[in-house]
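Morning. Coffee machine broken again, so started the prediction first thing and wrote up yesterday's gels while waiting. Chain of 467 residues, entered below exactly as on the submission form.
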Amino acid sequence: MTKYDFPTQVEDNTATISVKKLRSAIDGKVIGPEDPEYDKARTVFYGGIDRRPAVIVRPAHAADVSRVVLLARETGSELAVRSGGHSLLGFSVSEGGIVLDLVDMKGLDIDVEARTVWAETGLTAGELTKATAQYGLAVGFGDTGSVGIGGITTGGGVGYLSRKHGLTIDSVLAAEIVTADGRLLQVDAENHPDLFWAICGGGGNFGVVTRFKYKLHEVGTIVGGMLLLPATPEVIARFIAEADSAPEELSVIANVMPTPPMPFVPAEHHGKLAVMAMVAYAGELDDGQRAVDRLRALATPIADMVRPMAYPEIYPPDEEGYHPTGGVRSLFLDTFDLGTAEMIVENLKASTAMMSVVQLRVLGGAIDRVPADATAYAHRGRKIMANVAALYKDPAEAPVHEKWAGALMEALRKDTTGVYVNFLGDEGEARLREAYPGATWDRLRQIKAKYDPTNLFRLNHNIPPAA
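Came back before lunch.
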């Protein structure tokens, strides 16, 4: 390990960070509290998070990342790693520490013949998807284009191609990662296989991934878009049943929620409960139309925007200045029936939040064909992922809406356990252990002890090193 002490200064026997000296040591950009772009640079996607880091570093390359990691290690500074800034709990920004913002690292090397891509983790899912789409190829990410590929990949990656091509981590062939001692390692099935296993689902606990190598899949024109149906319990239950029995080329994300006043929705439906479904069929177009027709037949659509489209179009445009604040809970469901749908409708009607939603994602398909211990994502056999959210503006309302979201989650999950780490809130160690059940937790702790024994990478859903 190379000692890295020149960007620090000693004041009252305490090592602090000299922003001026750091600028001379880093090829990338260094942003301090006095800089005009500081407030924008420290803002993350979710609202209600107002933290002021000592410095924000935007590295130009992996060597810069290594220098910043060693700086945090030597000064004892809290280190926040940011890929896209979508961390639910604001792990992408530190109070008084260092933010390592990868936004300027957008290197991309597409091998069309081999159907692989090396992608730096400053890229967003939307940016990478657009770049590979020109060759009719894609990696499956989530449902939002502005999410950074680093966070979604290390957590697992559940999205529109999951039933057909698996989670995002199922397409990862290799990665380059800076570990807590400043080394840049290439990891894959043969090189540091334990670390490779851990970063495929174990989150940001093990280092800073600077590049991923992904396998690319043929994805050209899809049948996709929004389908809006009235949300009676019967429609919700039948919708989930149809999505579950559909060909694995079809993935749906069903948001049960009051209908927003969107311009293409008739006014008489505004505020009434609807199933706002985002649909994506990655296969033959005629087969896709038939699969979607089965959903359309459940009720007269309020709005139907499903059509053949280029795959990148499935991502909605970014909303400038949109920073939602809310009580959010997530869980897995192994069954779904009419009684569950009735419970959802009753609770949504009772909510007093600015906007309440229960999101349902039918899983299965390729996700379930990977052994549970092949990656750190251990929930391969789960049927449905459910997310509960209550959005609000006034922080004083938080206890009310957090209680509503928590109560509905507990009512829905009954005796089931498990949670997807990328959707986990601040819910304590017991819930974190549900993200990594049984032997997965123990294995991750052993790997953490090997690569980060002092827990430098702790601003995350933290897995402590084994004693």
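The mean pLDDT is 95. Going to sketch it on the whiteboard this afternoon.
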